[in-house]
């Protein structure tokens, strides 16, 4: 007969449960993994498989009963870590969507929106287009695998233990949010400058030839030129997006280090 204590049982359960909670929190917030089009069963199943693969290689976890107060605190801790890491990478795609909003506003397409099932809200057409391009680039660069690799490394920086998360980690997330939206503006800057020049030319034309209905020709001209510039600029956006994704992965490591107080 195999005998084991309750403490040993809690240790065996925790060896799988706590990593599973952290992974599930990241899968629920990270780009691509958190898409609402992906069924919840698939997300939970992916988290389960990853936890089974990762947990044997981790250091032994403290034998904490899952239903105890300490167990609930451990769950909250792992959820916060997973959300912080996933949200850090999510901000990269938020910046790309913001760039689409900026461009759509200048092209006069801010009214053109449709229901986006991935976000559950109305989204501008260009914002969705930019997001799709960024997502395809992300997949082409194996970004989803690099995010999972960053998650695995976080178990070295932030092992599963009753530790206090440093508040500087969440400060790094906020700081990264400010930086990344500047990057979104830089992504849209060529189009914004070109379209502002077109609008300025239309304003001068309106003053020079007041009998000409600028409003009737301004929108189609702006739209045609905007689409033309998009056709020229977007194929060259790959290196910029790659740099953006690399910065996001670096930020994930910075967040993990800051949460650990390093």
Keywords:
262 residues, mainly alpha, two-stranded antiparallel ribbon, 8 helices, 2 strands, 3% strand
Structural write-up:
By secondary structure, the protein is mainly alpha-helical. It has one domain (6-259). It is built from eight helices and two strands; from the N terminus they run H-H-H-E-E-H-H-H-H-H. It has helices spanning 6-27, 40-54, 69-107, 125-140, 143-157, 168-208, 214-233, 238-259, and strands spanning 113-116, 121-124. Strands 1-2 form a two-stranded antiparallel ribbon. Strand 1 (113-116) and strand 2 form a beta hairpin. Helix 6 (168-208) packs antiparallel against helix 8 (238-259). The longest helix is centred in the last third of the chain and has 41 residues, at 168-208. The radius of gyration is 24 Å and the shape is elongated.
When the domains are counted, the total is 1
Largest sheet report: 2 strands, antiparallel
Average pLDDT metric: 82
In terms of DSSP E residues, the strand content is: under 5%
What gap, in angstroms, lies between the N and C termini? 47 Å
Computed CA radius of gyration, to the nearest angstrom: 24 Å
Segments where pLDDT lies below 50 for 5+ residues?
A: none
Estimated structural class: mainly alpha
Number of helix segments? 8
Fraction of residues in H or I helices: over 70%
Global outline: elongated
Please provide the count of β strands. Answer: 2
Strand ordering within the main sheet: 1-2
Instruction: Write the H/E string, N to C.
Output: HHHEEHHHHH
């Amino acid at each position: 007969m195999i005998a084991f204590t309750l403490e040993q049982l809690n240790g065996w359960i925790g060896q799988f449960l706590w990593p599973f909670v952290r992974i599930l929190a990241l899968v629920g917030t990270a780009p691509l993994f958190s898409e609402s089009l992906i069924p919840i069963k698939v997300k939970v199943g992916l988290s389960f498989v990853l936890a089974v693969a990762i947990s044997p290689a981790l250091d032994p976890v403290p034998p904490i009963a899952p239903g105890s107060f300490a167990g609930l605190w451990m769950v909250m801790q792992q959820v916060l870590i997973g959300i912080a890491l996933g949200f850090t990478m999510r901000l990269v795609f938020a910046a790309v969507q913001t760039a689409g909003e900026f461009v759509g506003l200048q092209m006069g397409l801010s009214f053109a929106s449709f229901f986006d099932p991935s976000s559950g809200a109305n989204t501008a057409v260009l914002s969705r287009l930019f997001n799709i391009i960024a997502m395809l680039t992300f997949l082409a660069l194996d970004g989803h695998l690099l995010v999972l690799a960053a998650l695995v490394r976080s178990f070295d920086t932030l092992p599963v233990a009753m530790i206090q998360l440093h508040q500087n980690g969440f400060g790094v997330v906020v700081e990264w949010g400010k930086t990344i939206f500047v990057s979104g503006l830089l992504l849209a800057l060529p189009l914004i400058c070109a379209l502002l020049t077109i609008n300025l030319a239309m304003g001068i034309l309106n003053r020079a030839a007041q009998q000409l209905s600028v409003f009737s020709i301004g929108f189609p001209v702006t739209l045609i030129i905007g689409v033309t510039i998009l056709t020229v600029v977007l194929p060259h956006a790959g290196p910029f997006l790659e740099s953006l994704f690399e910065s996001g992965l670096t930020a994930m490591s910075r967040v993990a280090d800051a949460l650990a107080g390093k």
